[in-house]
Amino acid sequence: RKEVEQDPGPFNVPEGATVAFNCTYSNSASQSFFWYRQDCRKEPKLLMSVYSSGNEDGRFTAQLNRASQYISLLIRDSKLSDSATYLCVVTPSGTYKYIFGTGTRLKVLA
Amino acid sequence: GAGVSQSPSNKVTEKGKDVELRCDPISGHTALYWYRQSLGQGLEFLIYFQGNSAPDKSGLPSDRFSAERTGGSVSTLTIQRTQQEDSAVYLCASSLGSAGNTIYFGEGSWLTVV
Fold it and tell me: Do A96 and B106 touch (CB under 8 A)?
């Protein structure tokens, strides 16, 4: 089983739609969680950290479910500019290793 | 500059040649990471430095790959006797070094082995 798993997509959604991605992780002792965004042929960039109580940044909401070992990302009112690959990142407890999922590709259609 | 700087941006090399890729992290960042990403694939962890030491080299694919970091700053990733399967973008990232800190990536070094 992969340490971090994501549905590769693509998710094709119309502008204005709400879309959600999940990411599961295998190490129950994982301590830090992030969502990164990667545009085609560009480096990954931090979208948001994920906190235990859940957190929101504008149209983006991230949640953590430790019991079921998954994190989620919800994007409301999708924009064309949201089209990208979204990477789930997990840091196992006691290490500085950042483990990336393979990403979920989102295409927002006009 | 304020970000992670990598060089060269692009490198085309012949099979069997050695290549060196350089990373200059954000000033003050003690942790440095190398990842590899093949076309259409996810990020593959290669090595992690804390200061000048590398507590985790578990991701290096073979003994043709090595990395060092000097002065707690610049790092060099060396690939000896390159093979076509080494073609990928090599991404360097740095962070403040405490667990849970955000890591920031450079733009990558795109390596093509012909």
Answer: no
